[in-house]
Sequence to fold (385 residues):
Amino acid sequence: APARVRDAAARLKRWLLEAALPIWWARAADREGGGYFDRLNLDGTVAANPKRLRVQARQAYVYALAPGLGWSGPAKQASRHGLIQMMSHKCDDGLFRTRPDEPAPRDGMGLLYDQAFVMLALASDLVAFGDHDQQRHALAVLRDIAAFAHPRGGYAEAPGLPEPLFGNPNMHLFESAQAWMRAKDGGAWDQLAAGLARFACERLIDPASGAMLERFGPDWQAPAAAAERFVWPGHLYEWAFLLLDRPRVTAGERAAALRLIEVSEERGVDRARGIVIFALDDQLAPLDRGARLWAQTERLRACTRAAAIAGDGSQTTGIQASAMWDAVAEAIGALDAFLDVPTRGLWRDWMGPDGAFVDEPAPASSLYHIAGAIAELVRQTSAPP
Fold:
């Protein structure tokens, strides 16, 4: 990696270890009610908001990563603080919900999405802290979401909810399956990961454009309404990284992943600002020129992995390592802009089309994206032992 990228990786790692992990543990952990608050104001005080299930799972995951990154804080305590709260949300049907009376979701970030993050948190706990009982809980969730399976592949949002269908929760289910492959290789996790990788490449990714929509009709076809046919470049990067990170990635999956990165770099990046925009239409023209923090981190993570693949000389990929490291440097600049707030360790979440940031509290859920990107950047830029 270029020196400028290595230097930035070291700086971002210090920011994570010295500022972000400490402040979210000190300020956002609810010592009385359990779990983590959803948001912090930019002065570090708690913003009034509910505590969502996915935040508990994500914070448990982040603090389970922390020891491997060198954090000297109470990682196990901080991780279990979210995990215990998460486990308290298990309902009578075996599924996890923020509230037992939650209606069937229809936005791509509901019931299936939350189950995926529950399984990811359980896998990270096993890897970091060695609690082998977590696999029993995860397998129970996996058994219960069998009712979500779609006859043409992938999973619906909830049982008996044929449309709309979404790629996003399937992506996070793929992520959790791969986490479990690393934690406990073999069996159901290998089968789930392989099936979802094949499903993404054969059904979700458009072979003509190399991109994928967010929403789908009842048989995973493009929705009839033009307003429902849109692409989030941030998710193209995220899918790309997860495919490239697959322990048993095939040549076809690798090619599809690199094509997702190529499409996002060509169509999803506003070159004037150096940021990933929020949405494209189905012709890959800009639809929403606003920008989210998480999309910048997913560009950083995916392009870092692509640069490492191109630079190691072991694969014929058709991508240039130098171009990918340039993209990484640009993504770091975008991330720095979102992290430039009065209280170190917090961030802004939304940038408007004009480049001005929305004045609002920092969402805890973004730490999952930030920590994952920094971990990958550090992994690929550190000198070998």
